[in-house]
């Protein structure tokens, strides 16, 4: 029983590792730059800031009764 569980855990690990490689190197060429490395830190921080604003706006909408919307304050 424990051996079977260990084998399943090993299989899951390798499946996840394969998915990680696919997402890290979408072209299957490990010599190409990682897509995330092509984005500047400033652009990444700007995107995160905008996403946080959107999430805050969504949270305010979720707290409103159905049918009532509050206008967007920023973007």
Q: Notable features of this structure?
A:
75 residues, mainly alpha, 2 domains, 60% helix, flat
- Summarize the amount of helix as a percent range: 55-70%
Q: How many separate helices?
A: 2
Beginning-to-end CA distance, first to last residue: 55 Å
Largest beta-sheet characterization = none
Q: Could you say which overall geometry the principal axes of the C-alpha atoms support?
A: flat
Order of helices and strands: HH
Counting structural domains, the number is 2
| Overall mean confidence score, pLDDT | 74
Portion in strands = under 5%
- Report the structural category: mainly alpha
* Unreliable stretches: none
Q: If you compute it from the alpha carbons, what radius of gyration comes out, rounded to the nearest whole angstrom? A: 21 Å
> Care to count the β-strands?
0
Describe, in short, the structure shown.
60% of the residues lie in helices and 0% in strands. The protein has 75 residues and is an all-alpha fold.
Question: Can you describe what's shown?
Answer:
Helices cover 60% and strands 0% of the residues. The chain has two domains: 1-33; 39-75. It has helices at 2-24, 41-62. It has two helices and no strands. With 75 residues, it is mostly helical.
């Amino acid at each position: 029983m424990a051996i079977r569980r260990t084998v399943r855990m090993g299989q899951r690990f390798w499946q996840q590792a394969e998915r990680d490689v696919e997402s890290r190197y979408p072209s299957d060429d490990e010599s190409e730059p990682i897509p995330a490395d092509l984005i500047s830190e400033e652009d990444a921080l700007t995107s995160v800031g905008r996403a946080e604003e959107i999430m805050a706006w969504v949270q305010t909408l979720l707290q409103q009764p159905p049918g009532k919307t509050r206008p967007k304050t920023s973007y």
